[in-house]
Each structure stands twice: as structure tokens, then as C-alpha cells.
Amino acid sequence: MEPADNSSVFNPAPLLEIDSMGKERFIAPHVKYMMKEPDDPCSITESLRHFPEEEEALNQDITGPPKHPPSNLTVVTVEGCSSFVILDWQKADNDSATEYEVISKSTGPAGNEESVTVTNQTHTAVENLKADSSYEFTVQPKNVLGVGPPSEVVPFSTESGKDAIWTEYPFQSDSYSECNGKQFVKRTWYRKFVGVQLCNSLRYKIYLSDTLAGTFYNIGDQTGHGEDHCQFVDSFLDGRTGQQFPNDQLPQRQGYYRAIRQEPVTFGEIGGKAQINYVQWYECGTTIPGKW
């Protein structure tokens, strides 16, 4: 499939040809720029809403490996979001492909790397891209009888960025989350450890703890639904947050809380009769792990 032909969302060039560090953004016939509001955080989930899921073909008569390569491989990138792209391609007519291997090769300051993602769709997000690095992408069709010829190789270069310091560390949390992925921690200037558990590299649950070995607790918000908690992952944005329940419908538990950005946190009861909201996930525009 192809992304919708919607000029308000997709464009062949960015609004600004220079990124925040003065580097020229990558422009090529196979690259499309997806637009977002400047104050909106980068979001893989929101970006993928423009690429509807396809139904899996049933009762397909497979007599051999796919015979034709995918075509029209396109790199869709969001201006100001260097940590991911969405690759989109066309399946050959009457082809027997049931899955695709998406191969990413990178060259950059940290050296050369290769990764492979498998999908049954004709689009996929490629996450954890490094800032200021060059990539080559290709897609290879496959089915139960083997692999077919790969697509053409398309290049892309990410925007500038700077290091984010996160360490993968399995911590104990007082869990209230939709996220079940890897866990990362970082020490903060306010003498707390921030812990995150990933849904994906741009959607995660944020926790706080006094010590690495102790419990990582939910963070409550006395005046909102945690939008300014993105400060804990070094984002200046007010982020998106998970489903917002009335605070009296949330289980009452212990956790940290505050009312406004920059305010020190207090430990106590949140949710329930405490009338302090907490949420299941955050999208702050900061990718974890990696660079932003």
C-alpha cells in the first residue's frame, strides 16, 4: 500500500531544509516528509495511523518462493524526529509473499550496523535510528518456501542530534502500565532515578525511585494527567498520555506526585480518594534508548 495522497500530511520536501543544528535535511525522490505541529511530540503510534493495517491473504496457493521484488520503496520521515522512519512499499501483483524482511544498514560515528525487521504488512516503522547517520534500506519478500528477490536499495540520512544517557536495567515497579518492553534507567538532577518501560522507543511508562534497588513508583499529577512529566525524560514538550480516567476510578496506591513542571515531587497516596491522577503511558518526543 501507499500512504494517502494528502498534501497536508505528506510532502516531497520538509518545511525547513535545515535542521536545528544547521545540517541540510535529506531530500530525494524516494523520501516523503510527514508533517506535525511543532509542539506535538514525535510519535511512532500517531504516524502509523496514516498507514492502515492490511488483512492477511487467506487460502493463498503457494507453489514456490516469491518471484518479484517489492517496488516503490519509500522512506517516510517526520520533520524534527530523527529516531525513526516508516518504510512503505508495493507488493507485486499476484505475488506469493506472506512476509517481508526489512533490512537496515547504517554508517555513522558509532560504526556500521545492520538490523532486520520482519512484517506481514507492506509498511513498517524502523526505530532507534541514530542521529546524524547514513542508512540504506531494502525489503525482501518471503513465504514458507523461501525468499524472493529484494527491492532496490534506498539511502537516507538522519537529522542531527545529541546523546541521551540511558542504561538498560531490570527494575521492580509498582506497575500500572500498558508497556511491557525493555526497562531503562537514568539518574536525574533532582536526586531521583527515572525508570522507563517501553511500549516502543517513543511510547513508554515513566517511574521514579530513590534507589536503583528500590521500587520504582508511578508519578501522579495534581492539576492534569501527567503531560508535564515529560520533563523527567528531558523533554520540554507537554506530552501525550494514556487513557485518562477520573482520579476516583484509579486504584489508590503510593507514588510520587506534583502539581506543575519544575516543582519537586512528594511521596504519598495517589489515585482514588487522594484525587491525584496517574496514567499508563507517555509520549514525550524523546526516544529511549538512543539519540534525539
Automatic annotation (TrEMBL):
Gene3D superfamilies: Immunoglobulins (2.60.40.10)
GO biological process: extracellular matrix organization; positive regulation of cell-substrate adhesion
SMART domains in alphabetical order: FN3
Transmembrane feature ranges: none
Domain Fibronectin type-III positions: 69-161
InterPro entries: FN3_dom, FN3_sf, Ig-like_fold, TARSH/FNDC1_C
Protein name: Target of Nesh-SH3
Species for this entry: Acipenser ruthenus
